[in-house]
Specification:
- The complex is a heterodimer of chains A (about 350) and B (about 160).
- Chain A is built from 15 helices and 13 strands.
- Chain A has about 350 residues and is an alpha/beta fold.
- In chain A, the strands form 3 sheets. Chain A has a 6-stranded parallel sheet with strand order 3-2-6-7-1-8, with helices on both faces.
- The termini of chain A are far apart.
- The C terminus of chain A is likely disordered.
- Chain B has a 5-stranded parallel sheet, sandwiched between helices.
- The longest helix of chain B has 20 residues.
- The N terminus and C terminus of chain B are likely disordered.
- At the A-B interface, helix 5, helix 11 and helix 12 of A face helix 1, helix 3 and strand 3 of B.
């Protein structure tokens, strides 16, 4: 039977994750507990708390001409404890090790039926990597996939206010005084810590919310509450506006966006249209919009098909540029969309770029 | 103006292949005086106004990576500039272009599209607009007629929204 996995997550170094991990190890009375790997960070309080707990000897692993300490996974598994404490799950092992990342080592320990408590900082989460860079200007190289949190049995937040963490830094409880001074001027600035704290709180809250949903109901509930926008575009200037409007709405709705261009089968864009399409692709890319191209003679039919496949809930469309004769024969595009796309909200984006002065 | 003359004029200005006036800007702001001047020039010249936000992408990212912070600054500004052009009854064809620097983004833009004239904002006292070095680069490399517009010193302190509401 697979071991129980508990992850202690914090906003930054120094909030007390390792300390909490050791405390929990000590409090697991009557259980066989070992330290699989500990990063004491030269913190006396942490080292003191580790005293008395059995430490599985580390492995000396070759790293070029150097030798570095790594967790000895095989030794931890051979020791067969009930609970292993393993610090810093996002750590990258030296190249001579079997696994590239420590979370892979942990996976082997769990598979051997051993419970694990581990620690990590939120900035290592893969999906937050870009956001962290934008918030702090620091590119985090050691990342771990989001599924690690999803698959853990418990994710526990170790929280500290930015002020308290800065106080700990100033008191030399996290880094040496020289290093702490530099850290306070850089990564550990108040605004950085506040943003990181917000991220970690949101992450853990989402994790809690996800655990509240019974697994079998999740796709249904997602379908019921999640919004997804389908923006219909053409190789024309007005489509830039449609994409920007869709993006703005997506910000409010927390929605994904697809941009769809439906072209007649075999149709080759003119050079001007090709230029417009390239510009739309660039804008879509910058806005994080998925760009789709579909062949089809019937726009409404193509939209119905794609909306069904993508789970769209909103359709953004520009003011239709229809000939009156087609409108009379086939009905207006908008009325067909309303009639033939039940369950989809339709929003018409005004075509102000083509607003014209009436001829005298 | 006769109906036929109207449609001919409209075809000449708004149809594909009409004149295109590029107004690049960056850093989350476009000087209002420069915008007004660009609109006047586009009107007189019967050109499509192409406001282009140049987005600088850090080396760690793919060139077209979605950068939320920058996009959040760029989109409202682009909308505001587009509105200002539309209020002046201009055809507007806005762009966002990415590059490793503002000049790199500009180079990518005019490599991909044809323009007829460029209106470039000179630096403001608040640090917006192109730097002297960038302006020098534009003058040396722009394949089109280039106008460099200095902001009105008295209006320099005001933000774009003062003018475009």
């Amino acid at each position: 039977m697979r071991g129980h996995y508990r992850i202690l997550v914090g906003m930054a170094a120094g909030v007390g994750k390792t300390y909490r991990m050791l405390e929990e190890g000590r409090q697991a009375q009557g259980r066989d507990v070992v330290i699989g790997y500990l990063e004491p960070h030269d913190r006396p309080d942490t080292a003191a708390l580790a005293e008395g707990l059995e430490i599985v000897p580390r492995l000396r692993a070759a790293h070029g001409e150097l030798e570095l300490d790594e967790m000895d996974v095989d030794a931890v598994i051979a020791r067969k404890p009930e609970l292993a404490l393993v610090d810093e799950l996002a750590h990258t092992n030296t190249s001579s090790m079997r696994n590239e990342k420590r979370y892979e080592d942990i996976d082997e320990i769990l598979a051997a039926g051993i419970d694990v408590i581990s620690t990590v900082n939120v900035q290592h989460l893969e999906s937050l990597n870009d956001a962290i860079f934008e918030l702090t200007g620091v590119r985090v190289r050691e990342t771990f996939p989001d599924r690690i949190l999803d698959e853990a049995d418990e994710v526990v937040l170790v929280d500290l206010s930015p002020e308290e963490l800065q106080d700990r830094l100033r008191a030399g409880k996290v880094y040496s005084p020289e290093r702490a001074a530099v850290a306070l001027e850089n990564f550990f600035r108040h605004e950085n810590l506040a943003a990181l704290r917000e991220l970690v709180l949101r992450e853990v809250a989402e994790d809690v919310e996800a655990r509240r949903q019974p697994a079998g109901l999740e796709p249904l509930s997602k379908q019921a509450v999640g919004e997804r926008i389908l923006a219909l575009i053409e190789p024309q200037p007005k489509s830039q506006r449609i994409l920007r409007r869709a993006w703005r709405s997506a910000q409010r709705l927390d929605a994904e966006i697809d941009a769809l261009w439906v072209r007649s089968p075999g149709y080759e864009p003119t050079p001007e249209e090709a230029t417009q399409l390239a510009a739309l692709r660039r804008l879509a890319s910058v806005l994080g919009i998925h760009f789709l191209e579909e062949d089809g003679d019937d726009l409404v039919e193509a939209v119905r098909r794609v909306a069904g496949e993508r789970g769209s809930t909103y359709v953004f469309v520009g003011t239709p540029d229809e000939r009156r004769r087609v409108e009379i024969l086939r009905g207006s595009l908008l009325s067909r969309m309303v009639r033939e796309l039940p369950g989809l909200d339709i929003r018409v984006v005004a075509d102000r770029t083509q607003r014209e002065t009436q001829p005298q | 103006m006769s109906r036929l003359a109207f449609w001919r004029q409209r075809a000449a200005t708004a149809a594909p292949g009409g004149r295109r006036l590029l107004v690049p800007f960056t850093d989350g702001e476009l000087d209002p005086v420069v915008l007004e001047a660009a609109i006047r020039i586009a009107k007189v010249w019967e050109a499509t106004l192409v406001p282009a936000y140049l987005m600088v992408t850090p080396l760690d990212f793919e060139l077209d990576a979605p950068l939320q912070k920058q996009v959040a600054r760029a989109m409202p500004l682009l909308e505001a500039v587009e509105h200002a052009g539309l209020r002046a009854d201009l055809a507007v064809d806005a762009r966002v272009e990415t590059g490793r620097s503002a000049t790199h983004a500009l180079q990518r833009l005019w490599d991909a599209e044809r323009f007829d004239r460029i209106v470039v904002p000179a630096p403001t006292t608040r640090g917006y607009g192109f730097t002297p070095k960038e302006l020098q680069w534009i003058l040396m490399h722009a394949p089109y007629e280039t106008l460099i517009l200095r902001p009105d010193p008295e209006l320099d302190a005001h933000a774009l929204e003062v003018v475009v509401g």
